[in-house]
């Protein structure tokens, strides 16, 4: 019986973190040969429409930044509605956790008074060592119950994308408790005086091609005055993170001025777009976000725009498909998305065995965002050479490529914890 339990755990763990392809799974025809990368020219984030270059923060904030942001809205992610709905917050449960080091809080955010089925369930771990703590905030892939094997954590009520993890009604199986704990280094986060806030991204919209039909893009379209096709799943998930930030600002145990937004894989793409949209997030961390995230689209390496649109058409707005075979025709590239985070601290991370996500393309994107950070007197990576493996480099922008596959590891969290403690001191 014990062997069956272990085998089941390994099976579920494999499902949970195979959220993107690793280098071993790269489809035939995909370029993973650096010598075959074709020459490309990146748009200059400081080049304005009138041909002049941005030379000061005022012109960046008032002219160029809004212009670049609009290009991403129109061509990549769709627009995010800014109508303020009436939200309510309900404390569902509190208790001691992590061996008494933390307080566990479970909060339900009702996103609208008109539809109580539109909600986000938060799981918070706050260190008892601080009365007002900085926090990491980020989505999880399959429900809060996967983050820790704690029977007090409520199981997600919204459907999961993967049928192998769910009950007949689509909700999460009890066997999923704690299966993602290796990717959430909760104890070390807490020991370093930082809190953790997480929620299941399927509370906003289930990650399937037709998830919009039952998610907020349909439920709240009349209240938000936006049609489902005007925005994407990534923008919907970003909108949800902004609603989480609304809650964090009124929780007296959280230092809302020091919130580090974290995301892995598709949720790393989401974190970057959210951070570009909502400057209340004081730091953004992209863990292996790849194409459509931190990686340069104009590099024909690893996953492409066409790959994304064929496999995950719901992630992006319709116009993004027009660049399937011509990334260079797109008026933006992903270094410009990173530049929208300036002057806030930004961490971009890659993995050696995740060539599908193009580690070098992620690194070069961070390199080319530095010119905007320089406007604010902030230093970028300080190098244009790929660093050795398992080495963190940079200043206000930071980067590492570690050994291993597409995942979130203890090494990653060590760097992010250090970055938070340095930048938020």
UniProtKB/TrEMBL annotation:
Top-level taxon of the source organism: Bacteria
The keyword Signal is annotated on this UniProt entry: yes
Domain 4-O-methyl-glucuronoyl methylesterase-like: 229-377
Keywords linked to the UniProt accession: Hydrolase, Serine esterase, Signal
Name of the protein in question: 4-O-methyl-glucuronoyl methylesterase-like domain-containing protein
UniProt key word Signal: yes
Signal sequence annotation: 1-24
């Amino acid at each position: 019986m014990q062997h069956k339990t272990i085998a089941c755990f390994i099976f579920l763990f494999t499902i949970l973190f195979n959220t993107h392809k690793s280098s071993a799974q790269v489809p035939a025809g995909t370029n993973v040969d650096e010598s075959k990368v074709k020459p490309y020219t990146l748009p200059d984030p400081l080049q304005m429409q009138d041909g002049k270059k941005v030379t000061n923060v005022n012109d960046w904030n008032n002219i160029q930044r809004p212009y670049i942001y609009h290009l991403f809205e129109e061509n990549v992610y769709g627009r995010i509605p800014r109508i303020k709905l009436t939200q309510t917050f309900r404390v569902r449960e509190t208790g001691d956790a992590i061996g008494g080091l933390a307080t566990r809080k479970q909060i339900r955010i009702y996103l609208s008074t008109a539809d109580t089925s539109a909600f986000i369930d938060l799981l918070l771990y706050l260190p008892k060592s601080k009365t007002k703590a900085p926090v990491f905030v980020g989505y999880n892939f399959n429900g809060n119950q996967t983050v820790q094997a704690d029977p007090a954590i409520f199981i997600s009520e919204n459907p999961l994308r993967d049928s192998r993890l769910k009950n007949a009604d689509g909700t999460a199986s009890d066997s999923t408790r704690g299966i993602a704990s290796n990717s959430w280094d909760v104890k070390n986060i807490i020991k370093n005086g930082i809190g953790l806030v997480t929620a299941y991204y399927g509370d906003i919209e289930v990650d399937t091609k037709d998830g919009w039909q039952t998610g907020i893009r349909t439920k709240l379209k009349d209240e938000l005055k936006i049609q489902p096709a005007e925005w994407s799943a990534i923008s919907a998930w970003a909108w949800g993170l902004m609603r989480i930030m609304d809650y964090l600002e009124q929780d007296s145990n959280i230092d809302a001025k020091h919130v580090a937004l974290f995301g892995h894989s598709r949720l790393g793409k989401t974190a970057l777009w959210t951070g570009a949209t909502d400057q209340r997030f004081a730091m953004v961390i992209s863990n292996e976000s790849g194409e459509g995230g931190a990686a340069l689209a104009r590099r024909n390496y690893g996953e492409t725009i066409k790959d994304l649109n064929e496999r995950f058409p719901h992630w992006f707005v319709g116009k993004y498909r027009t660049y399937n075979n011509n990334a260079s025709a797109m008026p933006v590239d992903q270094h410009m998305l990173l530049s929208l985070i300036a002057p806030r601290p930004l961490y971009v991370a890659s993995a050696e065995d995740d060539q599908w996500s193009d580690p070098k393309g992620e690194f070069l994107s961070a390199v080319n965002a530095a010119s905007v950070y320089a406007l604010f007197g902030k230093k970028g990576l300080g190098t244009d050479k790929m660093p050795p493996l398992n080495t963190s480099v940079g200043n206000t922008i930071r980067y590492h490529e570690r050994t291993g596959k597409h995942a979130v590891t203890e090494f990653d969290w060590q760097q992010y914890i250090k970055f938070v403690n340095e930048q938020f001191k």
